[in-house]
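Figure S4 source data
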Amino acid sequence: MEPVLSIRQLTKVYGKKQVLKQINLDVFPGQIIGYIGPNGAGKSTTVKILAGLITDYGGEVMVFGRNLRENLIESKSITGYVPEMAEMYDLLSPREYLTFIGKLHHLPEELIQTRSEEMMTLFGMRENMEQRMDGFSKGMKQKVLLSSGLLHDPKIIILDEPLSGLDANAVIVVKDLLQKLKGAGKTIFYCSHMMDVVEKVSDRIVLINEGVIVADGTFASLRGEDEASLEQIFARITMPKKGDNSEL
């Protein structure tokens, strides 16, 4: 099986700080990758490179066998990206905002409206379709953002803290939706601090620390004999060893 995403020797430097240090990773069709790590580990930088938002990086990223740098617009057209913090046009209604996003992807008007209503109904926001978003809660805006990222039926879905601000019912909806998308052959790159959710939804977990991949495998394969949760695995791998003063 050919990888959907193939990352080779990926590096990124900000000033004098090297954030990514020769990352190598293959992601395959129908996989949900849980991409986790401490703050500053390089998660968001990786995600922004894959989404085409950062282009001045070292190494190579291939999307369906085509170089990301050389096919940026094409790659973006098949990628759905949901950032942790997004600037939205708050004076628009969800219908207006999703229509705008749909037109950016050159979708037919009828299809935009059908998919917008389906997504908003799924998230329990059908009655809010015509309301201005400047009065919405963080969770309500997040539902619109998730809908916008999936509106064009992307083959690759990149999620950076997608559950931020969502209530318990919405979290269940998103988890079920991820499984349906996986069943439809979508490739999902899931970046989050919510270890319990990552543990449950991911086929494969990739742990990055200080710009380097330090663990890669299924939850079962990463567990030690006494570890019952992903939080414990995370702590074992990423916490400074006793007597390590490298952080001082």
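Figure S5 source data
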Amino acid sequence: MLAKNVSYSGLARLKETKLKTNDFTPQFSVKHMHKDMRLAVNTGEGELPLLNTLRGCLARAEGEGMGDDDFSALIRLLAAK
């Protein structure tokens, strides 16, 4: 249960049911989040390692055909390891 995690938030509450039921219908798609992260990298100064890691995950998800899925579909990348 996600609620027992210290990082539980409104976003986690919103996505919990989707994750439990493997429902990846888009509320905010992988491709749109990836676009936003590409834009974000150009607004910062210095190195942003977490942002670069997230961009890599989003690019991989798009490459595996998940671009139109909700960004919660990134969990599939973790499950595949």
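Residues 20 and 76 are 12 Å apart (CA to CA). The mean pLDDT is 88.
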